[in-house]
Design a protein that fits this description.
Layout (H helix, E strand, L loop, with lengths): L6 H24 L6 E6 L5 E6 L3 H20 L7 H5 L3 H31 L8 H27 L1
Antiparallel strand pairs: 1-2
Helix pairs in contact: 1-2, 1-4, 2-4, 4-5
């Protein structure tokens, strides 16, 4: 019997899939209107410090595809990431659901960051001074959230 995803994972996956499709549509629809030189690199404050050819946007798509496919497969088969000890102690479904939710959140964050960076690069716009601090804060909060939930699950198994 297939286990249904929880609501949070489902919403994150829907938004992530929309971002994934949206970045492809954005690049396909605007390719001819993008400048020949786009933003190729950003400094710590989100300002453009190097330009690249327009074709370098395809590298973003390549990375987005790899992350999307890899994280989707891992989310579908989370046992590859689960702790054998926890799985053997009878907490299988609870642990696997947390791993699925964590992977959905990681996928959302990664695809969201890359989508935003792709759009900014294509339009030769700065990322903004807030970009790096926001990524760091969101990543740290995500790690803390899932570490705390994992420890709670482990203590519930005892």
């Amino acid at each position: 019997m297939k286990k249904r995803k929880n609501r949070r994972s489902l919403i994150l996956n829907l938004i992530t899939t929309a971002l994934f499709a949206g970045v492809h549509l954005f690049l396909a629809a605007g390719w001819s209107r993008f400048p020949e030189e786009i933003a190729g690199h950003y400094n710590f404050t989100g300002e453009i410090d190097r330009f690249s050819e327009k074709n370098s946007l395809l590298i973003y798509l390549f990375i987005i595809w790899i992350l999307f496919v890899l994280l989707t497969v891992l989310e579908r088969f989370p046992r590859f990431l689960g702790s054998k000890k926890m799985l053997d102690e009878g907490g299988t479904e609870k642990v696997l659901e947390q791993v699925r939710e964590m992977l959905a959140a990681v996928k959302f964050l990664a695809i969201g960051i890359l989508t935003y960076a792709t759009v900014c690069s294509a339009l030769a716009r700065p990322l903004g001074f807030w970009f790096l601090p926001a990524i760091l804060i969101l990543t740290l909060l995500g790690i803390l959230f899932f570490v705390i939930r994992t420890f709670q699950s482990i203590s519930d198994l005892k």
